[in-house]
């Protein structure tokens, strides 16, 4: 279960080939906690490739979910039951519940979290919108209330939206710089251990490690940045040399 992990490093798999995936696992598997197969990529991969991809991760104890967009597509098409079956048949052990695009109120979102828990999946949820204007209109108070509600409903971790690029969304400005006062305000009201901060850029990773510590949960890490992040956590790069973990 994800809650038992010391810290989370969530890899964003954008459809890397199986050979590259095997190479990645040979060198970096111990440093990957969870994989998100981004967006709806799992829906366009050949079925057998997807199943093998998931199996390779799970063989080494890595949790695997599709991106939240895959579920949002199922919501739009009223195909939740078919989506649940696809999750199970493909081999996913986790699911991400988000409302980054679709209109889904908090009660409906929490109902989905409870439903997927009952079906035996590890459930993560995501707070935030993929639309920058809509996302920046979400107050810290609303983010905190959503986070608490989703944890109470059974989400094991709540992901803070930052998308693949980490710019102009969530707690980052258009250049990808951290809006530190917003993070400080958010962290006054939630336990950081319950949060996965999407932080695809190095400066963001450095910020969170310095502010929270080496065990901060970080997500949307590119496959070729896993070892780089681990060195940051361990104080093996100049940016965090005085920190060790």
Automatic annotation (TrEMBL):
<dbReference type="InterPro" id="IPR036112">
    <property type="entry name" value="ComA_synth_sf"/>
</dbReference>
<keyword id="KW-0456">Lyase</keyword>
<dbReference type="GO" id="GO:0043817">
    <property type="term" value="F:phosphosulfolactate synthase activity"/>
</dbReference>
<dbReference type="InterPro" id="IPR003830">
    <property type="entry name" value="ComA_synth"/>
</dbReference>
<protein>
    <submittedName>
        <fullName>(2R)-phospho-3-sulfolactate synthase</fullName>
        <ecNumber>4.4.1.19</ecNumber>
    </submittedName>
</protein>
<dbReference type="Pfam" id="PF02679">
    <property type="entry name" value="ComA"/>
</dbReference>
<comment type="similarity">
    <text>Belongs to the phosphosulfolactate synthase family.</text>
</comment>
<dbReference type="InterPro" id="IPR013785">
    <property type="entry name" value="Aldolase_TIM"/>
</dbReference>
